[in-house]
Amino acid sequence: SLACTHDLIPTIDEFLQVQRDEVGEGISLGPILTGRPFAPREMIFAGLADEEYAILTQLWKLILPVAPTEDRPRQLYAKPEDRWEMNNLAEQHPDIADHLELQLRRYLDARQRGTLADLPPLRKDLLHG
């Protein structure tokens, strides 16, 4: 399942049976750890200090620098095959890179406006093999 650091606090809270009023972007990984049924995520988003952002699905990872350059273009990797992210496929699959970039930009905009629940779904061919 796709997981990120945002999941740590909800997971620890569930383990310690702590209730919080504020709800973040993370989800508890308790069901995964204990074998209970859960709905896996379709995608996760990540960022590195406003230098670059990424979107990850079960099949793809797109890395988008805040200021792309010739030396630092957007990068698309096939997952899980390209575990070490050595083969940038952005030029070979521009339609996939474009769609993931659009979803990433929608996420960043929705996060800023506080409307994450309104994100449209990804194309199904980008989610599962």
Walkthrough of the structure:
With 129 residues, the protein is α+β, with helices and mostly antiparallel strands. It is globular, with a radius of gyration of 16 Å.
In short:
By secondary structure, this protein is an alpha+beta fold. The chain contains three helices and four strands.
How is this fold's topology laid out?
Elements lengths: L7 H9 L13 H5 L9 E5 L3 E5 L3 E6 L9 E4 L15 H20 L16
Characteristic terms for this protein:
single chain, 129 residues, alpha+beta, 4-stranded antiparallel sheet, 3 helices
Beta-strand content bin: 15-25%
Task: Report the order of strands and helices.
Answer: HHEEEEH
DSSP helix fraction: 25-40%
**Number of DSSP helical runs:** 3
Shape: globular
Q: For the terminal residues, how far apart are their CA atoms?
A: 14 Å
Radius of gyration: 16 Å
Which parts are unreliable, with pLDDT below 50 for 5 consecutive residues or more? none
Main beta-sheet annotation: 4 strands, antiparallel
Number of separate strands: 4
